[in-house]
Amino acid sequence: MHLHRAERIWLTFGIATLVVFLAIIGAAALSEGFIPPSHIQTIDPTKVAQTPPFDKPGLRVTGQDTAEVYVIARIFSFTPSLVTVPAGTNVTFYATSPDVVHGFFIADTDVNMLVVPGWVSSASHTFARPGTYLLLCNEYCGSGHHFMYGTIKVH
Amino acid sequence: MSDAQLRNENRLVLTHVYVATAALTLGALFGLLQSFSRARWLTMPHAFDYYRMLTAHGVLMALVFTTFFICGFATFCTYQSIPRTRSTALGWAGLGVMLLGTLAAAYEILAGNASVLYTFYAPLKASPLFYIGATVLVVGTWLVAADILLNVAWFRRNHPNVRLPLVVHGAACTFVMWIIATLGVAVEMIFFLIPWSLGWVPTVNVMLTRMLFWYFGHPLVYFWIMGAYLIWYNVVPKYYGGKVFSDALTRLAFVLLLLLSTPVGLHHEFVEPGIGAGWKWLHTMTTYGVVVPSIMTAFAIFASFELAAKRKGVKGFLGTIAALPWTNPAFTGPALGMILFIFGGFGGIVNASYAMDTLVHNTMWIVGHFHITVGGPVALTFVGTAYWLVPRLTGRTLWAPKLALAQTYAWFVGMAVMSTAMHWAGLLGSPRRTDDVTYFGTMAAHAWMPQMIAAAVGGTILFVSILLFVAVAVGTLFTPRAQHEDAAFAPVEEEAAPTPAAFDYVGRWGLVAIVLAIIAYVGPLHELLAQHVYGAPGMRTW
Questions:
Q1: For labelling, which of A9, B78, B104, B335 has a CA lying 20 to 30 Å from the CA of B90?
Q2: Out of B51, B363, B439, whose CB is closest to A140?
Q3: Is A35 close to B291, i.e. CB distance below 8 A?
């Protein structure tokens, strides 16, 4: 097969760019922990309300600068619907669903995960500045989907 | 080959194109209303709510419009390039089965029994007839694929020393890829969703059905792209007196798309639990493999433009672009679509960039992305091509060509406005697939409402454009008879070396594609099934 000279240059440049690009993403994943939320843990979706720690959803302070938040996403609300966290704290969210698939997205942050019945999802975030953040369901879950939201208050 | 057979073949292709047009029209009306609802210009009544409309829009546009057009066009390519005495029974059977499945699924959606969106994520539980209808639609496409591939086999048997015609090679790669990809959704339907919706099994494995869906869902995207590439490579050069840049590279691009379309689906599942970050990384890398056939295609298009311009004595980049037929709607459709595709490609790179996806996943950014890809290059290419194809099939002239031209430019403007607004809203956090995004006046929601209004303005321009298309499509049924003497496909440039014979072994490349798909999915599937998975009973939440 004959490759025109200009095409050889174009393809070499394109493929080299691609290799560099993937290397940067890979390096960022390994060194900076830039990886998508990929928690692997199952839970019986019919017994969420009885399964610790989801039997008492809400905030748990686990250290000086760390906290965990357990949230149940169900049609069409988050429990709890208001979470107050201190600024500068690294918060790890854990969420699960007793019914259908939901989204767990805090606008203006990179906390964005799918909540699947039978599974626990998890993502961490440090809220640097005080303020009010909108938590919303960004996966269609039924006729009241657009009413499904919550509030994260950072003080 | 008799005149009666030719007329019959043309009618078959024409029926595909007109079913696609009907789906596009109804889908566009729902799209318009959705953009109005999100801008809060109207509230849909409870009797026909936003999510029913959203499901109909997605199914009609993503599954019905595109699939019928591609099935019709690939059949046209095959019949044109392999002229022989043949029966079209299998082709008609495929069309009939596709139509039957479409009508069943559409009925259930419009009746409100299947507001589960076109991705039908379990455990949202639609009525059995919806899943059965969708499955029957897929089975219909397999009959169309069989018709195309049987014609290819006949050609091989009877012309052992002749290359497969270029456009038929592309069509064959497209449909071999389609068969491999649709196996995923067929398994999801037949073994999981249908028995579960009928109540034969109590629960469904949610993550498994999602993985099966996306095994199909991303190749579906490349099915659209391959349909558009068939036109870009083989038809578009005709309009400016050009040629296909390279036989070998065209075949290589289609083989690469056949290989690289399937082992990539997990990049739609980046933010899901139950799938390890390592498998997501594997699919990130395979996803970017498609960059290679994409940049090959970009090169081939510009090289074809330039060589045609040089033959006419035109020089320079601007001269080359200016020399193109910007007043022929059959050209401006695909060409304006190519411009939109550049931006679609940029957005796609963001979406597939592993952790970067968490910034945009399930936001309006994604909606902006797939509108400027499938609603840009793909749909605009199909619509523009209809202006050349339909008169040729009916033996008539195109009705109101100036209106048709205006239609393509209006689409370009409408899509540019709507998609830009959607991308922007997504960056601000506005979720996709959501009726009312005001969240009772929350501050964050205030920020993205201007973009929702801009998207509705773009959507209105798009809707007007589609009305123009429908007017031309209907008008063209009643224009005077005309002879169409031009060749269906562009000739190929002379090449320095012959194309390697191996590029034509489409069946064997299909086997390689299956092996790649198995390699990509065996790990994540094993990881998923090794867990103690709780099934979900499912419910109707609408």
A1: B104
A2: B51
A3: no
